[in-house]
């Protein structure tokens, strides 16, 4: 047959196929696999082939749209039979050098031939429909187990060279031909996800084709973005590419997934326009990122870090505004902002997820806080002011978490609460970022008005200040030797946007919410500053303690520079309406913070708390007060009590004209009448401390509890009389404590146990109640006294002293009912007769027969006095102080203590050293006289008087250490005119041209302990200075003799028992006693200061740890004394006392 005839016959057959087959396909419904096989037989007719493929596609759609399961099962059986006929397996030999054979699988040969035909004929219509149909087929069978083998074979077949060529034809089409690219992407998406990613590795192995130009498909042009915005449900090229990437992230092996993540262009294009994507796609992306990236434990941290780059994190952050700006109708599904918030919250606060890196808290990256400066005599010690420790972090702070730092700057806390929560969470997880954020971010610049943006920013700043102080300031597992930079710490305490100007304007606003924000924020800032100062001022920093103390001072100074002035807070308090209890309570709490954290500044303002306290007490007595108002007033009262406790101008014992009782008793009445005892615990603590400091009761919680519980608030008729009597007694004891202390000592039967001075006042004032003749008042007061004495007995106070007090009360009583009540005071402390029961038998005889049961001995912990107090200081072999002062500027030598060290050389045991020191001090006087030093006159007078004193004593023998230490201590005061003792030191220098050594201790004891301080808040500082002077000045037996003549120890032991003396001062008194034992003064203390009797009296009054120290002190004194002399002097009684104390 000729070529022309053959060509004609082919044309004729195609014509018949074109005319008959389509009509037959349109009219017949597919009911068997044979029809499917005939339907997809290859023919070189593109139009007819497209129609047949579409018919097959409709059949696939009908499976999913079947109305019942029987029809669906029937069609699946037909499809299964058809698939079984569409697979062929052929074994082919491997290349040379390889063993065995490999299996070549062919599926859908006719359909693949059609696809190849379409590629060769460049029929785009057929190139579109065939991969689309294959994708639908794989999707249809993916949920049917019986199709698994065929599906795997098909997927592998599609990844063979010939089919990859066909896929490459579609994937390499120009971007505008989306109809060619999208079907191929959908087909690859189905392939990679079939059977849980069974052929995912094989697909990725062909990534030169299967991943070609993915970043191009993911990047839409402007027209595509506008088209997608108009119809969000329409399938687009970007959407198909996104689904393909998501499928690979889900089903690929971890190595392939890491490789995909490393393709920066792909991931960037994947997320770049995510804010313009449809809602369902955005939700799918967020879920996939969380499931396949974040929660994939097999994926390395470095891979996660590459995925969550700065750019990608910023794209995710933009989704916070998706719901506000989206044009899609709102649905009942989850909000995009909530979903992205969950994801970002997780990765930003959880280490190991690729974003959060371990940081060093408030210590900037690159700093080394473990290194202390070397001690070099050639350098001036400037502490944190030296060039080495200059604060370089005011404008920028180096951080490790660079990605989080970038995201923090991108977040908009003024837009919504979710971004505020994320930003605060970042700060909590990485404290280093707080200072970094505020050095870069400018915010809070608008006028303080209650706008939405201003309120959001204020809420963010408030939450930032509320963050806890990082453990060890964020440094590893322990506190380092050096403190963190103050410029970094202050940003976490009072951030940079909260300037003095802004806070003052907020306080002066007439808008309540703005004012209340400033007050609350400052209160939280004060509390945080207090917590930071507690860390800085802790005593466990070792050699770096001076640096921490200096940092604490600098931090307070910086805080004061930013904080609003206290006078503005006081003005706000006076301007606040009395009806506005919420703001009044907030402002009083802020004022209490000033007194607690920065008392020096608070005392300068002179806020009179007495009038405010009286006003609050009057309002608490108002009838018809609501529960909320009462709670608010009690809270306000607690803050005022804190202020009153620290205020020197508080008049506790003065009765205001508008009040029935004194200020103390009025507050005490509120405490007793309040049913919620937990709410008044701070008031209880403050009132107890006031009573103890004024020697009204003993420093025992049980004694105060006895006083509180003795008043019966249910008896409203008797309560006023009882409170009036109590008020009278308490005020008298507070005003004349010595008088009532003497009365108590006359009542006591033991040195170890006694009663509160309030009992002596009750005994003294009871006869006046009896003489008054008011039977109701007498009965009420007697009932209270009986309860009070009984509860004191149970609290552990001396029962014999209480019995003696009860007897004196009975002697002054005339009415039988009152006597009956008082007689039962110590017999039954749970129920006391109210005077209406019949008189019972007098129990005085039984009381007289009571015998003190020996107290159970407490086991005291063992203490090492040398470890607590340190060893005795000794003179060094080198005396560099003789020449060190000349190496520095004169002013620096004075302020750095070089001159003080030179003065102490006069006390050296070497005569040559003393003479050289005398000459050097004389030279120093000549230099200071010709210098420009501001305090040169006082320093010149001090050194001149010291030299006159030394010249009078002579240089042949060492100068007593108390002389040298007095001169050194006075010099330190003169260099600081703000020192609390500046005035008294100048008066000391004006007394005489030389000093009488024996009278130096007496002078300072008189001026400090027996006279009021020059400043209201200077008492404790003056006492500390005096104790330091006595402690440093006791080095030899000569010093001990001077102290003995001046009665130093008698004065200081009495000071120890004062309730106003703090724990540090008491510790110094004990250290001074121990120092006396080290210099051979134990016998002097025993015979002249009754030290063992004093120790015996203290054992039962102090806590276990302090009692152990006192007992060890008794043992050390006894061991270091001349025991034969003590035995002869005391008749062996001291040995028994020491044994009793230490056993």
TrEMBL record:
InterPro entries listed in its UniProt record: ARM-type_fold, HEAT_URB1, URB1, URB1_C, URB1_N
Domain (URB1 N-terminal): residue spans on this chain: 109-456
Entry superkingdom: Eukaryota
Bias (Acidic residues): 833-853
Biological processes, Gene Ontology terms: maturation of 5.8S rRNA from tricistronic rRNA transcript (SSU-rRNA, 5.8S rRNA, LSU-rRNA); maturation of LSU-rRNA from tricistronic rRNA transcript (SSU-rRNA, 5.8S rRNA, LSU-rRNA)
Residue ranges occupied by any URB1 C-terminal domain in the UniProt entry: 900-1094
Pfam families to which the protein is assigned, alphabetical: HEAT_URB1 (PF26140), NopRA1 (PF16201), Npa1 (PF11707)
One of the record's GO cellular component terms: nucleolus
Record field: compositional bias (Basic and acidic residues): 16-31
Annotated URB1 central HEAT repeat domain residues: 647-833
Record region (Disordered): 1-31, 823-857
PANTHER family: NUCLEOLAR PRE-RIBOSOMAL-ASSOCIATED PROTEIN 1 (PTHR13500:SF0), NUCLEOLAR PRERIBOSOMAL-ASSOCIATED PROTEIN 1 (PTHR13500)
Official protein name in the record: Ribosome biogenesis protein Urb1
Taxonomy of the source species: Eukaryota, Fungi, Dikarya, Ascomycota, Pezizomycotina
């Amino acid at each position: 047959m000729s070529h022309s005839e053959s060509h004609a016959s082919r044309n004729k057959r195609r014509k018949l196929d074109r005319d008959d087959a389509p009509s037959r396909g349109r009219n017949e419904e597919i009911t068997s696999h044979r029809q499917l096989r005939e339907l997809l037989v290859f023919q070189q007719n593109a139009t007819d082939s497209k129609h047949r493929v579409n018919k097959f596609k409709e059949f696939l759609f009908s499976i999913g749209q079947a109305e019942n399961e029987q029809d669906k099962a029937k069609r699946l059986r037909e499809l299964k039979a058809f698939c079984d006929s569409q697979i062929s397996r052929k074994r082919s030999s491997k290349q040379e050098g390889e063993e065995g054979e490999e299996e070549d699988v062919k599926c859908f040969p006719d359909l693949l031939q059609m696809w190849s035909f379409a590629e060769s004929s460049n029929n785009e219509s057929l190139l579109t429909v065939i991969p689309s149909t294959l994708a639908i087929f794989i999707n249809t069978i993916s949920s049917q187990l019986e199709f698994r083998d065929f599906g795997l074979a098909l997927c592998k077949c599609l990844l063979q060279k010939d089919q990859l060529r066909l896929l490459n034809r579609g994937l390499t089409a120009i971007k505008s031909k989306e109809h060619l690219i999208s079907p191929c992407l959908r087909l690859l998406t189905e392939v990679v996800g079939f059977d849980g990613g069974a052929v995912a590795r094989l697909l990725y192995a062909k990534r030169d084709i299967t991943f070609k130009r993915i970043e191009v498909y993911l990047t839409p042009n402007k027209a595509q973005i506008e088209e997608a915005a108009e119809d969000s449900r329409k399938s687009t090229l970007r959407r198909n590419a996104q689904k393909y990437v998501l499928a690979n992230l889900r089903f690929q092996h971890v190595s392939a997934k890491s490789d995909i993540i490393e393709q920066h262009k792909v991931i960037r294009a994947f997320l770049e326009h995510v804010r313009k994507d449809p809602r369902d796609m955005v939700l799918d992306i967020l879920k996939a990122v969380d499931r396949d990236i974040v929660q994939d434990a097999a994926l390395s941290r470095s891979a996660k870090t590459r995925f969550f780059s700065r750019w990608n994190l910023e794209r995710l952050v933009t989704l916070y505004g998706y719901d506000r700006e989206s044009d899609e109708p709102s649905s009942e599904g989850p909000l995009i902002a909530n979903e992205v918030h969950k994801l970002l919250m997780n990765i930003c606060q959880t280490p190991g997820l690729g974003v959060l890196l371990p940081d060093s808290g408030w210590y900037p990256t690159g700093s080394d806080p473990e290194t202390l400066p070397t001690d070099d005599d050639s350098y001036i010690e400037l502490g944190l002011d030296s060039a080495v420790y200059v604060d370089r972090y005011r404008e920028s702070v180096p951080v490790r978490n660079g990605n989080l730092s970038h995201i923090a700057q991108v977040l908009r806390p003024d837009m919504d609460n979710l971004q505020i929560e994320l930003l605060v969470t970042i700060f909590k997880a990485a404290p280093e970022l707080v200072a970094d954020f505020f050095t870069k971010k400018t915010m809070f610049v608008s006028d303080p008005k209650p706008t939405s943006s201003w309120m959001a920013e204020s809420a963010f700043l408030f939450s930032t200040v509320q963050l806890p102080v990082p453990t060890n300031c964020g440094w590893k597992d322990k506190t380092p030797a050096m403190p963190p930079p103050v410029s970094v710490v202050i940003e976490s305490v009072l951030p940079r946007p909260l300037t003095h100007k802004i806070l003052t304007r907020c306080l002066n606003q007439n808008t309540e919410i703005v004012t209340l924000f400033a007050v609350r924020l400052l209160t939280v800032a004060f509390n945080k500053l207090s917590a930071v100062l507690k860390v800085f001022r802790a005593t466990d920093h070792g050699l770096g303690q001076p640096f921490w103390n200096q940092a604490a001072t600098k931090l307070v100074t910086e805080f004061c520079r930013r904080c609003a002035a206290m006078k503005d807070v006081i003005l706000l308090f006076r301007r606040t309406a009395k009806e506005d209890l919420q703001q009044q309570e907030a402002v009083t709490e802020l004022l209490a913070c000033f007194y607690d954290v920065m008392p020096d500044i608070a005392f300068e303002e002179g806020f009179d708390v007495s009038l405010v306290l009286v006003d609050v007490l009057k309002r608490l007595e108002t009838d018809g007060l609501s529960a909320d108002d009462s709670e608010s007033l009690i809270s306000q009262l607690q803050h005022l009590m804190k202020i009153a406790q620290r205020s020197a101008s508080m008049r506790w014992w003065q009765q205001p004209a508008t009040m029935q009782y004194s200020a103390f008793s009025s507050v005490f009445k509120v405490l007793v009448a309040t049913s919620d005892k937990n709410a008044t615990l701070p008031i209880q603590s403050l009132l107890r401390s006031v009573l103890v400091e004024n020697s009204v009761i003993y420093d025992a919680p049980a004694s105060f509890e006895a006083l509180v519980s003795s008043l019966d608030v249910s008896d409203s008729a008797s309560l006023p009389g009882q409170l009036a009597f109590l008020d009278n007694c308490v005020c008298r004891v507070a005003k004349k404590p010595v008088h009532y202390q003497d009365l108590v000592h006359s009542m006591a039967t033991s040195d170890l146990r006694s009663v509160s001075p309030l009992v002596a006042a009750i005994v003294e004032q009871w006869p006046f109640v009896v003489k008054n003749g008011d039977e109701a008042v007498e009965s009420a007061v007697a009932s209270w006294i009986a309860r009070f004495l009984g509860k004191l007995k149970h609290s552990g106070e001396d029962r014999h002293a209480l019995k003696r007090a009860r007897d004196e009360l009975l002697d002054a009583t005339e009415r039988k009912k009152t006597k009956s009540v008082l007689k039962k005071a110590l017999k039954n402390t749970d129920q006391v007769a109210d005077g209406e029961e019949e008189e019972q038998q007098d129990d005085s005889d039984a009381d007289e027969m009571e015998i003190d049961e020996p107290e159970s001995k407490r086991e005291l912990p063992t203490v090492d006095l040398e470890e607590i107090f340190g060893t005795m200081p000794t003179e060094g072999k080198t005396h560099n102080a003789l020449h060190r002062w000349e190496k520095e500027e004169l002013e620096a030598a004075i302020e750095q203590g070089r001159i003080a060290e030179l003065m102490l050389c006069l006390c050296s045991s070497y005569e040559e050293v003393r003479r050289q020191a005398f000459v050097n001090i004389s030279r120093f006087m000549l230099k200071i006289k010709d210098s420009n030093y501001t305090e040169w006159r006082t320093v010149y007078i001090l050194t001149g008087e010291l030299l006159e004193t030394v010249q009078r004593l002579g240089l042949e023998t060492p100068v007593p250490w108390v002389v040298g230490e007095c001169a050194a201590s006075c010099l330190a005061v003169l260099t600081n005119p703000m020192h609390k003792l500046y005035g008294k030191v100048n008066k000391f220098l004006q007394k005489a041209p030389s000093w009488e050594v024996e009278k130096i201790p007496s002078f300072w004891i008189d001026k400090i302990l027996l006279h009021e301080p020059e400043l209201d808040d200077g008492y404790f500082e003056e006492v500390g200075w005096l104790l330091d002077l006595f402690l440093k000045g006791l080095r030899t037996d000569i010093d001990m003799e001077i102290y003995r003549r001046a009665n130093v120890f008698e004065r200081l032991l009495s000071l120890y028992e004062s309730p106003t003396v703090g724990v540090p001062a008491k510790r110094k008194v004990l250290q001074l006693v121990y120092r006396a034992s080290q210099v051979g003064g134990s016998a002097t203390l025993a015979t002249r200061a009754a030290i063992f009797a004093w120790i015996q009296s203290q054992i039962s009054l102090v806590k276990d740890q302090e009692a152990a120290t006192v007992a060890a002190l008794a043992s050390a004194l006894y061991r270091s004394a001349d025991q034969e002399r003590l035995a002869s002097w005391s008749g062996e009684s001291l040995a028994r006392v020491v044994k009793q104390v230490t056993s």
